Amino acid sequence: MERDCHARCTGCDGVGNTVIEPERIQLLNDKPQRDGEYVLYWMQASQRAEYNHALEYAIQEANRLRLPLVAVFGITEKFPEANERHYAFMLEGLRETRQALQERGIQMVVVRQSPEKAALELAESAALLVTDRGYPRIQRAWRETAARRARCPVVQVESDAVVPIEVVSNKEEYAAATLRPKILRRLNDYLAPMRKTNLRRDSLGLHFDGLDLEDPDKILRLLRIDRSVPRQAYFLGGTSEAKKHLRKFITEQLDDYAERRNDPSLGIQSNLSPYLHFGQISPLYVALQVHAAQGKNRAAKEAFLEELIIRRELSLNFVYFNPEYDSYQCIPAWARQTLYDHRRDPRDYLYHRGQFETAQTHDPYWNAAMLEMRITGKMANYMRMYWAKKILEWSPSPEDAYRNILHLDNKYFLDGRDPNSFAGVAWCFGKHDRPWSERAVFGKVRYMNDGGLRRKFDIEGYVRKVGELVVSGGL
Question: Which region holds residue 14: left if phi is over 0, alpha if psi is between -120 and 50, else beta?
């Protein structure tokens, strides 16, 4: 998994501009070049001011056209299944991003409006509209609408995949085994550090109406959003916070990652998934930092980069090429058939959604995982698989289980509604996996049990750890 990136270590074109690989750049419409007051960067998926290919491309275009650059971000109050927990984390990150953009001479306009409408409104006076790339259907629909209605050229620049997805494959991949060699063939071409491009004309003197991000709590109170899940107190949003987690992981935990990451009692995880989901840190930056970590266990580095690049980009491939990525129909035919064959098998336990949500099952390990999820917005990675597998086992039908898992995942996890989350739920039903020995309820879908937890880990220690969270978290 480790790759040699020294051939492109400068990451610039010889005159100070970061190289933006042409495969990342896609013209979304055929509108002619026109005069304008500024270049507009529509930020949506890549919510950061550094290691952002779309932003650097927009700066380079603004310099070429001798125009200032303005950034716009639209906050929709109707994002599917988003709630106060998600909005609070996002607003914390946007506050930092706006400050960082201002230091680069870029005014960021944040408006309470559907993103594509916000972009189109400011694009009326723009010579060019540049945007980042999103993979779920709602983000793709926003960009398609903007490209169709804008009167200026619209350019999309991919910045949240290390290797652009269509460079790797033009179809849905069966599993990591089929995607891995395709990524590794091209990985060296894209593992290049990025430099910030200096903007020649700032936009700080231009006037726009927008929200004041200095007080995210005030904005949060104004929004008409789902309040059923309160904000969590364990992860603060923002690029600087993401970098703190990354530094701690590399310094204190990386060496143990390959061998001990699955033990939920140890907490050996990067905690970067919420930040990657909101685009507050670049996967390329993370990969380069881990790759460059001196004196660290090589196998551990390879194991982490496998998750960050291969597994994560398998999920991007899945969401992009499979239109049913958020439904039971996305799982492979063999899995649907075997689950259908066993749908009438007796279940030792049956629970409804309310019992799952309030952690009222017979299994103390499962209950602890559900409580960790509700309190912190995250869950130990191995327990996340166990949690979903048990809902499948304790539900009256696999379809019912799928709906409940996806609902709870999207509702409580900070990284819910993410390609990785959609792929993770589908994996628990056989996606990106293979048939196993046949057994009751699961058929040939991979099975997990509590005996494995007791054999492999200090699972009682994990339960005690979550119990302390319950006391401090007030549940």
Answer: left
CATH of the domain at 246: 1.25.40.80
* Range(s) of the domain holding residue 53: 1-198+217-321
Shared domain for 236 and 131, answered yes or no, is yes
Residue in the block written with tokens 């005069």: 35
Give whole-number Cα distances, 242 to 93, 236, 271, 279, 333, in Å: 10, 9, 8, 10, 39
The token pair at 231 is 């904000």
Q: Apex CA 80: angle with CA 75 and CA 85, to 5°?
A: 70
pLDDT tens digits, one per residue of 284-299:
999 999 999 999 999 9
Sheet bearing 126-131, strands edge to edge: 25-27, 154-157, 126-131, 38-42, 69-74, 107-111
pTM, two decimals, is: 0.96
When pLDDT is averaged across residues 418-430 and rounded to a whole number, the result is 98
pLDDT of res. 1: 58
Question: Which of 276, 305, 321 represents a domain boundary (last residue)?
Answer: 321
Instruction: Look up residue 235 and give its two tokens.
Output: 């992860």
Q: Which two tokens stand for residue 393?
A: 């086992």
| Structural domain contains residue 178 | yes
